[in-house]
Amino acid sequence: MKIFRLLFLGVILLPLYSYSQEALLHPGRLWTMVNINCQPWGNSYTSHYIKLGGDTVIDGTVYQKLDYSTDETQSTWIEYGGYLRETPDGKVYYKRIGMDEGLVYDFGATVGDTVHILNTELLPEPLQMVVILEDSIFLEDGWHRMMVLEDEDYPGEETWIEGVGSLSGLQKSCLNAFGSACGDYDLLCTSDYNIDVYITTEYPSCWYVTTRIDNDLRVDELKVYPNPVINTLTIEGDFLRSGEAFEIRLSDLTGRIVLQERQTYPQIDLGNLKEGIYFLQ
Fold first, then answer.
1. Per-residue model confidence as pLDDT tens digits over 107-143
2. Are 96 and 120 in contact (CB under 8 A)?
3. How confident is the model at residue 115, as a pLDDT?
4. Can you say whether the dihedral through the CA atoms of 264, 267, 271, 277 is positive or negative?
5. Could you tell me if 183 and 37 are in contact, meaning their C-beta atoms sit under 8 angstroms apart?
6. In this predicted structure, what is the pLDDT of residue 187?
7. What is the pTM of this model?
8. Helix, strand, or coil here: 50?
9. Over the stretch 142-169, which tens digit does the pLDDT of each residue have?
10. How far apart are CA 96 and CA 194, in angstroms?
């Protein structure tokens, strides 16, 4: 009986592993993300870095500004246009230029809680994310708390890891709630002062850039920026050098095409579109 009791206690105590809540916004933390770019000939993948660029004050509130780099060597950094702040109770708020602040993480929530997410990077309306699972995950630096959430109006599940953020990327919280689609983002890796914290198993490395070759068509490099975009989207690629017209198509989350045209120049005017998520082909 004694042996049985000890084994039983060992089994039920494992999920009760305790650890202190870890802040998300570390000054030395680096996030690497991959963007899945939709193309008629197949997907291509581009990577970029996100880091905290220091304090800034907006309307009397202190935020951490975001910087990003599309250079693997990180020699050039650009302001992203987004700002984050974290509270002691595990809430993280995000603000884009010219937009209201919204809650994008609540690490104080538990199973059954509804978290009202307003990530204007994704949608102008809030998501009602319900915590459906809490668990522990062992990463490069030890144990972290993991949460899975869903909104019954959308098909996908969102995963947060304490101290890491969303598996779609730091500022892309709840993107996975919409389900898998080309045009998505995935978190590749995070590190603290060059010490690994999280490394994905879905991609072969922490910097992932690919091209697709199909028959005689080759795209050596394709860049689409900025993302998020306010008015004008810019496309860069070797195919522009020919001067030939190319077709672009934008669709919303329902699959409805909202913009389709042929052009030869790299700038696309999106000023007439409503705020939201669009997929580019």
1. 999 999 999 999 988 888 899 999 999 999 999 999 9
2. yes
3. 98
4. positive
5. yes
6. 96
7. 0.71
8. strand
9. 999 999 999 998 888 999 999 999 999 9
10. 28
CA pair distance 30, 52, nearest whole angstrom: 8
Residue 130: burial class (beta carbons within 10 Å; 0-12, 13-18, 19+): middle
Which residues are within 8 A (CB) of 41 and not within 5 positions of it... i.e. 6 or more apart? Answer: 212, 214, 217, 219
The pLDDT of residue 255 is: 60
CB 69 within 8 A of CB 49: yes
Contact between 53 and 67 (Cβ < 8 Å)? yes
Give just the sign of the alpha carbon dihedral 179, 185, 190, 196.
positive
Residue 265's H or E segment, with its range, is none
The answer to whether the beta carbons of residues 231 and 271 sit under 8 Å apart is yes
Which phi and psi angles does 133 have, rounded to 5°?
-160, 140
Q: In whole angstroms, give the CA distance from residue 124 to residue 115.
A: 16
pLDDT at 3 > cutoff 60: no
